[in-house]
Design brief:
With 356 residues, the chain is an alpha+beta fold. It folds into 4 domains: 96 residues, Orthogonal Bundle (Arc Repressor Mutant, subunit A), CATH 1.10.10; 36 residues, no CATH class; 86 residues, SH3 type barrels; 83 residues, Alpha-Beta Plaits. It is 41% helix and 21% strand. A 5-stranded antiparallel beta sheet has the order 6-5-4-3-7. Helix 5 packs antiparallel against helix 6. The radius of gyration is 29 Å and the shape is elongated.
């Protein structure tokens, strides 16, 4: 038996699996029938269908016709319409138009996915929601679409004062030259609080991370390795320590991928602090993937506690809010206050938009 393309096969399986009232054996039989019809290049007659599935359409002509009529109705209810084509002088034939039972691929930006996830989780808390089961299934598909994880935190606070793309592009070329020649760089850099500091940096590498260009190197002002966002740079100038040759050497163990794959709560914004997050419901099973470097314990109610060290508490707060009500930041207290402030700011902003 030829199988239809994997995309169509997956769609048919989802449609059939969503109808839980039918026994598993009946679902499997209908799935096999739908897949066989979808794989046909030309319309097929009832007799051809009976011959392909002799065990399903056993008995006399009347019994086979009755069984086929029921199957047509069930397929239609599952969203798999059969097209009947009449032909002069011979028996009509059936065809499944695969485009009629498949949907185009949906893609969401991280911000859109976070909004959908958060709104859907909030709606599920309504006990009498008329489509609760369908909504839960849709959210589960969103998780699968994000490779097993809920969406990343949306940009809840605008990064004001960013440079235009043309400036970032110009500086990216300069960064490439600096990394190749190992020359000391003078950087005017805007911090998160809006203040601008001037630093000397030995640039080790640069990368694209979650929609932003970053570069990493030894910051002479801070006395250690730091990461910088290119869109926060106000000026980049060479400050060579040597007229010729490299000004510094890149550590042999440096790997830019360790920085480009860093989680928001691992950014070097403050001294290490311990945090505690509780995961409930569907997120409890995903806790090892959501916080892979955390120490996990299971509670009597099957929730899971994740204890971890963070260098950017605000990053963890924003991600916990995006995960929705099944994730709760328990410690530190400062983080909980930070979450309340973010939610209050969003509520105020939405209130102003609604009053316009």
């Amino acid at each position: 038996m030829n199988s239809p393309p994997s995309g169509r096969w997956a769609t048919l399986r989802v449609l059939l699996a969503s109808k839980r009232r039918k026994p598993a054996a009946a679902e499997a039989r209908l799935l096999k029938l739908a897949a066989w019809l979808a794989a046909r290049a030309v319309p097929v007659t009832r007799e051809q269908i009976y011959e392909a599935f002799p065990d399903d359409y056993a008995g006399g002509a009347a019994a086979r016709e009755k069984k086929w009529t029921r199957d047509k109705i069930d397929l239609h209810r599952l969203g798999i319409p059969l097209i009947f084509e009449e032909s002069e002088g011979r028996e009509g034939a059936y065809l499944v138009e695969t485009n009629s039972c498949t949907l185009p691929k949906l893609e969401f930006s991280p911000e859109e996915a976070a909004v959908l996830w958060t709104a859907g989780q909030a709606a599920l808390r309504t006990d009498d929601h008329p489509l609760a089961e369908d909504l839960e299934t849709a959210l589960r598909k969103l998780v699968v679409g994000a490779k097993g994880l809920p969406p990343r935190a949306a940009l809840l606070e605008a990064d004001w004062g960013a440079n235009p793309p043309s400036a970032a592009g110009k500086w990216l070329g300069r960064l490439a030259d600096v990394v190749e020649r190992r020359k000391l760089l003078r950087v005017a850099y805007r911090k998160a609080d809006g203040s601008v500091t001037e630093r000397l940096v030995d640039v080790y590498g640069y990368a694209w991370r979650r929609g932003h260009w970053i570069f990493v190197g030894h910051c002479h002002l801070r006395g250690g390795v730091r990461m910088f966002y290119l869109d926060r740079v106000r000026a980049l100038d060479l400050a060579p320590a040597q007229p010729r040759g490299p000004d510094y050497a890149v550590p042999v163990d440096f790997d830019i991928r360790a920085w480009s794959r860093q989680e928001p709560w691992e950014y070097f914004e403050h001294e290490p602090r311990e945090a505690l997050v509780r995961f409930r419901g569907s997120l409890a099973a995903l806790a090892p993937k959501l916080l892979p470097r955390a120490t996990l314990t299971r509670e009597p109610d099957n929730s899971r506690l994740a204890r971890l060290v963070v260098r950017n508490l605000r990053g963890l707060v924003r991600q916990a809010l995006a995960w929705g009500p099944e994730a709760e930041l328990l410690e530190p207290a400062e983080g909980r206050e930070m979450a309340r402030a973010v939610l209050a700011s969003l509520s105020d902003r939405l209130g102003k938009e609604a009053s316009r």
